[in-house]
Amino acid sequence: MRNGHTPAKKNQTDGGQTPPNVPLRYLIGFAAVVITSTRDFLCASGRSDQEVTRMHEAWTRAVSLTIALWARPYTVEDLW
After folding, report:
1. What is the pLDDT of residues 18-62, one digit of tens each?
2. Which long-range contacts (CB under 8 A, 24 or more apart) does 61-69 make?
3. CA 52, CA 48: separation in Å to the nearest integer?
4. Any domain includes 71
5. In 13, 49, 55, 63, which residue has its Cα 20 to 30 A from 2's Cα atom?
């Protein structure tokens, strides 16, 4: 499976000048920052603690699912 996020087609669509590959471990490592920093944002919305907790749990699941789906292209040809 190949897509624009692997070296085969990276930067071809928009003529970008980015590194040839972003290792999956960087995405996984960044997930913690994305998940934890969102709670402060949700708290600032003025919602109840219960609502904030439910929204944060949903956000955590959404980020986790997205990473799982994005992981597929990295499972070939030593792109880990």
Report:
1. 777 777 788 788 899 999 999 999 999 999 999 999 999 999 999
2. 63/31, 63/34, 63/35, 64/31, 67/27, 67/28, 67/31
3. 6
4. yes
5. 63
Domain assignment present for 9: no
The per-residue DSSP string of 13-80 comes to TT-----S---HHHHHHHHHHHHHHHHHHHHTTT--HHHHHHHHHHHHHHHHHHHHHHHGGGGSTT--
The reported pTM is: 0.65
- Separation of alpha carbons 74 and 10, rounded Å: 13
Q: In Å, what is the CA distance from 16 to each residue of 12, 13, 66?
A: 7, 8, 23
Number of domains in the chain: 1
